[in-house]
Amino acid sequence: MVTIKTQQNLIEGTYLSSGPSKENFWILEGFLTDDVSSYSIPFYREFLNDPNQIKTGGNYSVIEKEGDDVLIGCEFEPILFEPCIQMPQKELLSILDQWEALVKLRPAEIIIFKKNDSYILEGRNLVA
After folding, report:
1. Of 34, 45, 92, 39, residue with least CA distance to 68
2. Residues 127/106, Cβ–Cβ less than 8 Å
3. Phi, then psi, of 112 in degrees rounded to 5
């Protein structure tokens, strides 16, 4: 299980990673917190739904389509996509949907965990 905590004293609604994590979750955390945030969700949805786009990147991550899957790697690793997270494109779209819904609720923490090969995002400690 991975926790992403709200960023303190900066732009409201942004999130920071809580640090190193198992199973390369840190790559997914960095993608969500640094690249997607609360304003780039439509950009990444469009990328995933456009068969003509193969590769894109942000401030932190690089995403490349490989068949029905996507590889998410960190731009700062010496060998791109090593380590990486690989998942079906549909799974990443589900993560984006969950992320968007949670960011609107503004929880103090967003928990990411994997259950039956699916990523689940859950908000805790809602901020009024």
Report:
1. 92
2. yes
3. -115, 130
Q: Are 20 and 26 in contact (CB under 8 A)?
A: yes
Q: Would you state the pLDDT for residue 9?
A: 34
Q: Report the amino acid identity of residue 42.
A: P
Q: 3-state class of 14 per DSSP? A: coil
Residues 6 or more apart whose CB falls under 8 angstroms from that of 59 comprise 34, 35, 75
Our separate counts of H helices and E strands in the chain read 3, 8
Q: Can you give the C-alpha Rg of the chain in angstroms? A: 14
pLDDT digits (tens, 9 = 90+) for 29-75: 888 888 888 788 999 999 999 999 999 988 888 999 999 999 998 87
Whether this prediction's pTM lies above 0.90 is answered by no
Residues shown for the chain: 128
What is the distance between the alpha carbons of residues 61 and 31, in angstroms, rounded to a whole number? 6
